[in-house]
Amino acid sequence: xxxxxxxxxxxxxxxxxxxxxxxxxxxxxxxxxxxxxxxxxxxxxxxxxxxxxxxxxxxxxxxxxxxxxxxxxxxxxxxxxxxxxxxxxxxxxxxxxxxxxxxxxxxxxxxxxxxxxxxxxxxxxxxxxxxxxxxxxxxxxxxxxxxxxxxxxxxxxxxxxxxxxxxxxxxxxxxxxxxxxxxxxxxxxxxxxxxxxxxxxxxxxxxxxxxxxxxxxxxxxxxxxxxxxxxxxxxxxxxxxxxxxxxxxxxxxxxxxxxxxxxxxxxxxxxxxxxxxxxxxxxxxxxxxxxxxxxxxxxxxxxxxxxxxxxxxxxxxxxxxxxxxxxxxxxxxxxxx
Length: 337
Fold this sequence. Notes:
By secondary structure, the protein is α/β, with parallel strands linked by helices. It folds into three domains: 4-103, 3-Layer(aba) Sandwich (Rossmann fold), CATH 3.40.50; 110-130 and 216-328, ATP-grasp fold, B domain (D-amino Acid Aminotransferase, Chain A, domain 1, 2-Layer Sandwich), CATH 3.30.470.20; 135-213, no CATH class. The chain has eleven helices and 16 strands. The chain has helices spanning 15-23, 59-72, 84-89, 91-96, 107-113, 116-126, 140-150, 193-203, 250-263, 293-300, 304-312; strands at residues 4-9, 30-36, 49-52, 77-80, 100-101, 135-137, 157-161, 171-173, 190-191, 209-213, 219-227, 230-238, 244-246, 269-276, 279-286, 326-328. The strands form three sheets. A six-stranded antiparallel sheet has the order 15-14-11-12-13-16, with helices on both faces. Helix 1 crosses helix 11. It is globular. The model has no long low-confidence stretch (mean pLDDT 94).
């Protein structure tokens, strides 16, 4: 059997682990092609070929680049991250080239789940899990109004763009950073209320913002995949530092089962939760492999990336794991590029 040529475009650095997990296969040989706009990304070291991607501001132009790339490099399987939504919308064109895409085929569902405001409204309508109180702001004035509606004496308000990845726009409004002693502490994602208002007023137009009370409990990242054998759902509770605890929670499992069922998700997805007063509130659903899926693989021995790629190729790989608590962590290792 010839090698399966698989392409990953502009992924997180942790694609290093995803590539290694995909290659752990007892039946298929994978030839991995990587690309990124960062020529020094670490996962290039585990690729058979690597290419620097040109900058593209227009998604349509980027899709054309991807189609040409697949044609030129005889790609069999495409794991998109950059431009995933636009690529999914052109799935038929990739299929005409014989390329299988590890992404949901329903562009409407993808767009909805990747917009937090739309996703929250749908979760509420369908009664999926628990959604935190929230407001949407499109202007600085709407931000002030939403903040006042959500703010109480006992909470802090946080905000982020409704379309965000990796919490890049996430901020917590906290005026206590102006108090004595904060000069010796990290502000991290904290911002004062007045600075937030000034920032938005100076921005002019900006993407829609989602405001909600800051939830102070444990953060959970659940790695999920629907298979012929059943749904794989592995909740990872984020600890202090780099540790994560695998712990199976019935509410989280039920919510992930409903998400997979209601939206017909066939590709890997990752659901993010945050606890508050014992309730796991759903924060977002990422319709891709998570940046920490290797932690699930290590803890329970379930290789979600490899199972997902095999499923895409029409192969139902059997899997099993014991639902046990486990704590995992990681250390950084130097890699010469």
